[in-house]
Design goal:
By secondary structure, the chain is an alpha+beta fold. It has two domains: 4-128, Beta Polymerase, domain 2, CATH 3.30.460.10; 140-262, Four Helix Bundle (Hemerythrin (Met), subunit A) (Up-down Bundle). The protein has helices spanning 4-17, 54-59, 61-66, 123-128, 140-160, 163-185, 196-199, 204-208, 216-237, 246-262, and strands spanning 23-28, 43-49, 70-77, 82-91, 95-103, 115-119. Strands 3-4-5-2-1-6 form a six-stranded mixed β-sheet. InterPro entries: NT_sf, Polymerase_NTP_transf_dom. One of its GO terms (molecular function) is nucleotidyltransferase activity.
Length: 264
């Protein structure tokens, strides 16, 4: 069930947006699609724009966002690689809302099939038929080609004593490698570590060991657990054409062990 505050905002937004002739449809994604929206969820709007007015609408994004409710703050999404995105915080009851403004000509290129909330003359429905949703799935070979280079990199930061840098780096491995593979193993899309506690409860105990405290010893231990989990997942997903970077693995592991012995 959609929380009352979320539903009220969605209903009001549709009323406002449909009055702008330049906007030809409104859809939503994320937890709305799976009916898992709760009080902590944000709202992900995809706002389809007539291509003839797209640049004009993009220049007015913040103004449009302000018409939807009490806008406390808003900024664009270049930091997540999506400049079309306007990330908003509304009040007085706080609500996070993502507004992605997409030209109707580009809306078929997507990572998921959104729920269409409103559209003019079925234009969004027709546009979506031009292509299928494609969620980016990491390839095991892509990971393997990089993983041991990353392990060496992490070991060099430990060796230099850059503990904060190492802690952040280990977090990135959990986010880019371990989390997505665990989610995929459990039949979910590889969304970092999103809801991994609920999807893969049996993995949580080991995942906790990948979170280091502020010490060289803890960072080394966490990095070794990262490697252990990766090797297990690698065997689970391995295919006949997969190429193990055996020499890179050996040299990187030896280097980490050398750093470990040097700090005892």
């Amino acid at each position: 069930m959609i929380p009352i505050n979320h539903k009220s905002f969605i209903d009001n937004s549709i009323k406002v947006l449909k009055d702008d002739f330049r906007i030809v449809g409104v859809a939503t994604g994320g937890s709305y699609i799976t009916n898992e929206m709760d009080e902590y969820s944000d709202i992900d709007f995809i706002i389809a724009v007539d291509s003839n007015y797209y640049e004009e609408v993009m220049n007015e994004r913040t103004k449009i966002a302000a018409n939807l409710g009490t806008l406390l703050s808003a900024f664009t999404g270049e930091h997540v690689g999506e400049p079309r995105l306007l990330i908003c915080l509304y009040g007085p009851e706080l609500l996070h809302v993502d507004l992605k403004f997409v030209s109707i000509n580009d809306i078929a290129h997507r990572v998921e099939d959104p729920v269409i909330l409103w559209e003019r003359d079925n234009c969004v429905s027709e546009a979506l038929k031009q292509d299928n949703a494609k969620f980016p799935i990491p390839k095991l070979q892509w990971i393997e080609d990089r993983f041991w280079v990353w392990i060496h990199y992490g070991a060099t930061k430990i060796g230099r004593g850059e503990i904060f840098e190492t802690i952040e780096f280990i977090s990135s491995l959990r986010q880019m490698v371990i989390g997505p593979l665990i989610l995929m193993k459990n039949g979910e899309l590889p969304r970092g570590v999103r809801k991994i506690e609920f999807v893969a409860p049996d993995s949580i105990s080991l995942l906790k060991d990948t979170i280091p405290s502020y010490s060289i010893e803890s960072c080394i231990k966490s990095l070794k657990v990262i490697m252990q989990i990766y090797l297990e997942l690698r065997e689970y997903f391995i295919t006949e054409d997969f190429v193990k970077r055996v020499e890179a693995e050996k040299c990187s592991v030896d280097y980490l062990n050398k750093i470990n012995h040097g700090n005892k």
